[in-house]
Amino acid sequence: MIHPNILPLAGYAVGITAARRADELGALFVRKGATVRYGPAIRIVPLSDDTELYSATRNLLDDPPAVVVATTGIGFRGWIEAAEGWGLGEQLLAGLSRSSVMTRGPKAKGAIRAAGLSEDYSPASESNAELLQHLLSSGVEGQRIAVQLHGEPLPYFADALRGAGAEVIEIPVYRWVGPADPGPLDRLVDAVLDGSIDAMPFTSAPAAASMLAMAKRSGRLPALVNALLNRVVVACVGPITAGPLVAYGIGAVQPERARIGALARTVSEALVTSSPRLCAAGRQVELRGQAAIVDGELCEVAPAPMAVLRALAANPGRVVSRRELISALPGGGEEHAVETAIGRLRTSLGEGKLVQTVVKRGYRLAVEREPA
Asked: Which CATH number covers residue 78?
């Protein structure tokens, strides 16, 4: 029985690449006992002085759109604030008030209402796909439609509308760029590779793409993809966010609703479900990301010994050769590295009998039976 003071995610480490609301997301994991490592992969650059945004805004003022699509609250507010800075705020709101306003989710809806406007449609799923389907099914041929972007182009969205005969004006309110200091992200990639990160929840496609791009530039992409495929729980807030990962064959769990709270719950459930449990040397053992629970007590374990323990637990009761254990170690090594890891593992677990040495063959867990 696990000690009641052990939180459900104690022993796990979560990596967060988000630019916005990173602290909020991290707090959800810390509250459950996880350790959080931050490595911002992107930053948001507002375009209040950007000629492209100004040009698009003037275009709409000269010929107001029939439909306005607001995809994010922060983006819509940024657009209005930029227009106010140019002395065009009242004129823009007056023009938008004559348009049919559609929002992707509750935050965009809140920003619309705060500006004194009201929405005509907002999809229950909070997805761009459902919003696009609503527009297409209602008929858009010959209509002028403004689409507020959310940090990156939405080519499939705009192209589908144009293909149906609409004139689309894209409103680029802010853009994603690389982090001002790439150091934390660089260290987060290293942490994934050395086995000290157990889950990576992504909240935007640009963040996922930026992390993969950094790994590619530094020659670590194959190793990163391998880790995300085989060991790390990867989660995305929605299918668009998952896009850059899917391109490398990396699957990601997703919550039913595209919310940060739901994302954190999905990650938590995936981690708990994937925790191996067994009985060895008369002890109940549960493996967590960076720790093991032995008879209800949490034992912290360093990455190399933990990698060895996972390899042994994957073959309960079977003798695992030193060669196999070398391949399980982060970065590989030699037989001496395995012996060192075994010694540290026994010390961390506080029970030498859990891991048995089989002379000239390797090591095995003293597994008796699967726990009930």
From this structure: 3.40.50.10090
